[in-house]
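REQUEST FORM: STRUCTURE PREDICTION
Request ID: SP-0412
Submitted by: Lab K.M.
Chain count: 1
Length (residues): 618
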Amino acid sequence: MLSVTEIEDHHEALSISHEAEMSNSLPGDDQDECLAYPGELCQHLCINTVGSYKCSCFPSFTLQDDGLSCNPGEKINPDFEDDAQNTALEEKATPAPEALNIQPETNNTLQVEQDKCKDNGPCKHICNMVEEEIVCSCSLGFVLLSDGVSCEDINECISDTHTCKRGEHCINTIGSFTCLQQLSCQSGYELKDGECVDIDECERGTHSCKINFACQNTKGSFYCESKQRCMEGFLQDPEGNCVDINECTSLPEPCKAGFNCINTVGSYTCQKNLLICSRGYHSNEDGTRCVDVDECQSATHHCGEGQICHNLPGAYRCDCKMGYQYDSFSRTCIDINECWNYPGRLCQHSCENTPGSYHCSCSSGFRLAYDGKHCEDVNECDNNPCSQECANIYGSYQCYCRQGYQLAEDSHSCKDIDECGQSAGILCTFRCLNVPGSYQCACPDQGYTMAANGRSCRDIDECAMGTHNCSSAESCYNIQGSFRCLLIECPPNYRKVSDMRCERINCFNYLDCQNTALRITYYQLNFQTNIVVPAHIFRIGPSPAYAGDNIILTINKGNEENYFNTRKLNSYTGIVYLQRQVREPKDFLLDVEMKLWRQGTYTTFMAKIYIFITSHAY
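STATUS: Completed
RESULT:
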């Protein structure tokens, strides 16, 4: 019998599962809840226990059902007293020795317990016996320390357990606290020792009096008093100087009609029928009084070019225009360069001087704001400077492209990316087609369909789908990208025992039995052009094999181009292998003959092998 084994790769994986358990609980010290929450857990006494706590009461109090509060008016141990009363009754009724011994023993025990708390025992404040143990507690406003004996004052102001209202200040005291009213003083006063006292601005030097004035303090404020007193006819200016009052101009009618007013230092005189006006004044039309001469209106001023004349009582003043300043050397008004005088303070970006003023300008990508000084960013993207996408940035903009495009050299337009040209064949397994902004993969026109990943091509099994054109007498064999129609026919003197096997009917002589094949079997193999050579493609041998078997392999037909060869692995197994690389798709039909030498007799077997070399998978 003939056995055939094609080359297969077997992979074996070892999976190891390991699960470890770790303990999440670690031993820790017991928390003393009584110290952690002083005065919050129990009404009277808190006793710490391992993992918890319990409450107890002072003498003459009884712990209630809630385990927290204490009720006055009952004894600590009523059961003990009931037993003592019953014992006393029994003593009166039956004076038995056993009964007489109960009371003294109880009294001794009580006496010993009382002796332990004598003078508060080891406790600093209060000593109590709870279940034959000494329990120390503290007075109100104190907390028991970790030694269980000493007491420490509770600072209610820091622990926020005081009851002071808003506007009151908390002051801690031993065992308690005090609330004091907070004071706020008016302007000119300050808080000192709980009272508002006046601030002496003159003494502290915080007044605003000028050099010719003396500071005088008042309650809550101060005033400035001039150091120099002016005589009548003089007026004190803000600097404290005495200035003569021109009564002739300040008084509505200093002199009667027909009299001329003449101002004097500190006073004035009236002269009849003698009207002499001072410089800058002239007499009115009826000659009764002097009126101011408007030099600016009468063009009698001496203001230079570019100056503006301002009339004053009895005089005039020459001022430079806005943006100009007076130059005493040239006695003219020259332009002020505001950009030099105030660098970086007038304009946000650039300052340009103009006659009498200045002008602000902005850098590229900015525009002047409404105030004419600041610069605001220009959104260049509003004008669509980019062919695809635009991102505004401070003072400029940036063009960028959508997926599948890249920015051109002009930094504005986008050009398509040829993914197929840049990928070097890694995007698609068969053919890559560039499209605007992307790419598409394509498969051969026949024999393949696109896989679900959109990149690789999947072979179409025409035989399974029934899309082949083989006749009913032919068998369809699928290959990579196509199919083959195979006609399996047995030669004369053979009969077909299966779809792929023919057996010899009889042989006429001994030589004919040894040289003609006992069995002819058809095989189909499919390989790709990129198969690595040498490659074992077919294994042949008797099944079962016995000791002493020996075979001879020969390729009788189909190897005219010497692509294939045979080799024995051992005395009863041989292989057919591909020894030359097949560069392009090609079909072969090999007649491989195996002569089996067994027990002094040769038996011939024939393997007709269809070998289809197809293009590599896409």
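NOTES: Confidence is low (pLDDT under 50) at residues 1-28, 73-107.
Reviewed by: T.R.
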